[in-house]
Design a protein that fits this description.
Length: 328
């Protein structure tokens, strides 16, 4: 493995000041976010960083508004609030307006990548490979769904454009398995996509600063990598690195290009699939990836000698000002 992480930028925990570890919230990914947040909080504390756990954006806003009124300020935010306002640009916009540094991409990258459809449109414009898809409107009708499935050809995934952790994702292998997706779509207030099912292997690549970490091939025990396989099951296999030689280099190159094309910086994770003929298809970007015992960025970082505590430190370093002359 030739991947080498750069030297740490700071070695004194005081350089970070008081850090708010933002977790939880009220969305569909609350429990996963709380798990991730507790792990990050404990890791930062173990390294001597003045970390403080905060549950949800309203609590954070109250704390920030109370600064200067007898309560000390937070110098930066470690955002581990999965989904919703934690990843759609709302939190990022508020923190930018308040001039509070934070981890993860800014408003543009966060808002764009929360929308799978528009992320794919950007990748297509940049000549980056992604799975074919058909866009569906909110509250999609049964006829619209069936027409999209017919246009794509089975098997397909039907999924919300703006959800994470496989929430609301349906794997449709035949017409008999369409009913749950149709029922969900008819009640869903956001856009959906009917997406080509790429069945040649599932991969993910963590991004840390300017480095694409080793890829991970995900091999679930079941038919696909659903919520249970991600966060509950212990029989999902993670092969890291997921590929070797030129194939590994190409996947990591594509992941970094996809991350940057979507306006992202700092850290995140790019998911991809591989066709049976070896071609890659970029799927989505996660701008506040999980940091649980099942999560993938920590697994990839460990492959290059970066343990969980160091990983949290390095992620927090991305919230520091960019050194003069360094790439943004």
């Amino acid at each position: 493995m030739s991947i080498v992480l750069p030297p740490l930028r700071v070695d004194d925990p005081a350089a970070f000041g008081r850090v708010a570890v933002l977790m939880g919230g009220e969305g569909s990914e609350r429990e996963v976010s709380l798990d991730s947040g507790r792990n990050v909080f404990e890791a930062l504390r173990a390294r001597g960083i003045a970390a403080h756990a905060i549950d949800g954006m309203p609590a954070l806003m109250r704390e920030l508004q109370a600064q200067g009124a007898g309560r000390p300020a937070y110098d930066r935010v470690f955002n581990i609030l999965h989904g919703g306002v934690g990843e759609n640009g709302v939190l990022q916009g508020l923190l930018a307006a308040l001039r509070v540094p934070f981890t993860g991409p800014g408003v543009l990258g966060s808002a764009l990548t929360m929308d799978k459809i528009r992320t794919k449109q950007v990748w297509q414009a940049e000549g980056l490979p992604t799975a074919r898809f058909v866009r569906l409107p909110p509250f999609a009708t049964e006829d619209a769904i069936k027409a999209a499935v017919q246009a794509m050809g089975l098997p397909v995934f039907i999924k919300p454009s703006a959800e994470g952790s496989s929430v609301g994702v349906f794997r449709v292998a035949d017409r008999e398995s369409l009913s749950p997706a149709i029922a969900f779509a008819g009640q869903h207030a956001g856009e959906l996509l009917v997406e080509q099912l790429v069945d040649g292997g599932e991969y993910t690549v963590g991004i840390l600063g300017h480095v694409a970490l080793p890829s991970i091939r995900i091999v679930p025990a079941g038919a696909w990598y659903d919520y249970h396989a991600k966060y509950v099951a212990d029989d999902t296999r993670y092969l890291c690195p997921g590929l070797s030689g030129e194939d590994e280099d190409e996947l990591r190159r594509l992941a970094l290009a996809a991350f940057r094309a979507a306006g992202c910086h700092g850290w995140g994770r790019v998911d991809a699939m591989r066709h049976a003929d070896g071609r890659f298809a970029l799927m989505e970007v996660n701008t506040a990836p999980g940091m649980t015992s099942h999560s993938l960025v920590p697994k990839a970082a460990a492959q290059v000698g970066c343990d969980f505590e160091e990983l949290c430190w390095r992620i927090l370093e991305t919230s520091l000002p960019t050194p003069p002359g360094a790439a943004a």
